[in-house]
Q: What sequence folds into this?
């Protein structure tokens, strides 16, 4: 059977397909017919034609320009640029043996040959820097945070300063109150001392004084001596007594005497004498407990304790008060004496007269004959001036 003769190709119309009676605006006429006609003209069997509502793979979507048409504006992301096929599609090229006038007009621009780019493909997403407004927002937030932090720290420092000032004021007030309280206490102590000056704790005074008092053995005579003052440069202990206690041996050229207490005997030497004031300074190589001396003159009415060895009876204690401080005692040539009423007897000479503060105020020297309660003592200041041992 002879082959069928090819149908005649009419320019501008596809073969075996009726020409649409009316073009719909905005919808291009499918150009698949052109390709079919071109294929039929080369002797390729006719291919089934697409039905309405379907679109060939190389045919643009409804509302899109056909091959060779130009649109304005940036194509959407993923869509081919002007005149370029979409990614993965092949651009429909008109047959090389067919003029451009054979392409049917479907309402767009006539076909124009366009050269394809060397490396067709989708355009990369353009770099879009961060907007200045976003940076400004971040900067604004940071400034607000910094302002809040600085404000909080400033308030905290201000609060600390206020607390410190308050604490300093409280400390100053407390210090003033303490100073006032201390002054009040000192005033009360002085008042109590003055009030209790007439109250003598004879037991406490005797306990403190007795270890420093000794009986003196000076040949045919005995008396009393007591340790006083600071330690000598060569060591040992200085002791005071009356000159008339050691006069008998001193005038004979003897400088050696002895101290006795609690059955013990200690040798001493006569170092210096003051015959005018009836005083003598003794020195022992032993280290005895020393009594302190009063800096001020004793006042009348002050209680006293007298310690000595009357009639050789060592460690005897009597008490009384200062009757007067006078320099008009008959037969003494204007010398100053402390008059007291504590009982004394021969052997008390050279013993200490001690006040309530356990300080030596005088040295018992003699008593009035044919009278009771009138004893005389040399002020301790005279002895300290004569021998510089206090």
A:
């Amino acid at each position: 059977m002879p082959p069928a003769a090819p149908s005649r190709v009419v320019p501008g119309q596809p073969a075996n397909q009726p020409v649409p009676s009316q073009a719909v605006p905005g919808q291009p006429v499918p150009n698949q017919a052109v390709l079919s006609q071109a294929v039929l003209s080369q002797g390729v069997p006719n291919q089934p034609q697409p039905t309405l509502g379907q679109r060939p793979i190389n045919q643009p979507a409804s509302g899109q320009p056909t091959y060779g048409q130009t649109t304005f504006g940036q194509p959407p992301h993923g869509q081919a640029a002007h005149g370029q096929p979409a990614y993965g599609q092949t651009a429909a090229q008109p047959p090389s043996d067919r003029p451009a006038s054979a392409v049917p007009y479907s309402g767009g621009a006539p076909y124009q040959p366009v050269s394809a780019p060397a490396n067709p493909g989708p355009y990369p997403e353009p770099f879009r820097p961060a907007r200045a407004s976003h940076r400004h927002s971040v900067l604004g937030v940071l400034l607000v945070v910094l302002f809040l932090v600085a404000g909080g720290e400033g308030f905290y420092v201000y609060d600390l300063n206020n607390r410190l000032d308050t604490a300093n004021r409280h400390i100053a007030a407390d210090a003033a109150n303490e100073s006032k309280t201390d002054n009040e206490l000192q005033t009360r102590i002085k008042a109590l001392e003055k009030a209790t000056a007439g109250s003598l704790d004879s037991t406490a005074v005797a306990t403190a004084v007795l270890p420093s008092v000794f009986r003196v053995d000076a040949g045919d005579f005995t008396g009393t001596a007591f340790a006083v003052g600071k330690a000598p440069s060569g060591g040992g202990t200085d002791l005071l007594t009356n000159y008339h206690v050691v006069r008998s041996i001193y005038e004979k050229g003897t400088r050696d005497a002895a101290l006795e207490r609690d059955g013990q005997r200690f040798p001493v030497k006569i170092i210096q004498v003051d015959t005018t004031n009836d005083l003598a300074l003794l020195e022992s190589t032993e280290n005895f407990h020393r009594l302190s001396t009063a800096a001020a003159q004793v006042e009348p009415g002050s209680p006293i304790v007298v310690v000595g060895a009357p009639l050789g009876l060592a460690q005897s204690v009597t008490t009384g008060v200062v009757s007067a401080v006078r320099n008009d005692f008959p037969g003494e040539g204007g010398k100053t004496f402390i008059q007291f009423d504590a009982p004394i007897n021969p052997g008390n000479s050279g013993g200490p007269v001690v006040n309530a503060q356990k300080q030596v105020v005088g040295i018992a020297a003699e008593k009035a004959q044919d009278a009771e309660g009138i004893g005389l003592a040399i002020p301790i200041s005279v002895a300290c001036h004569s021998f510089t041992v206090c």
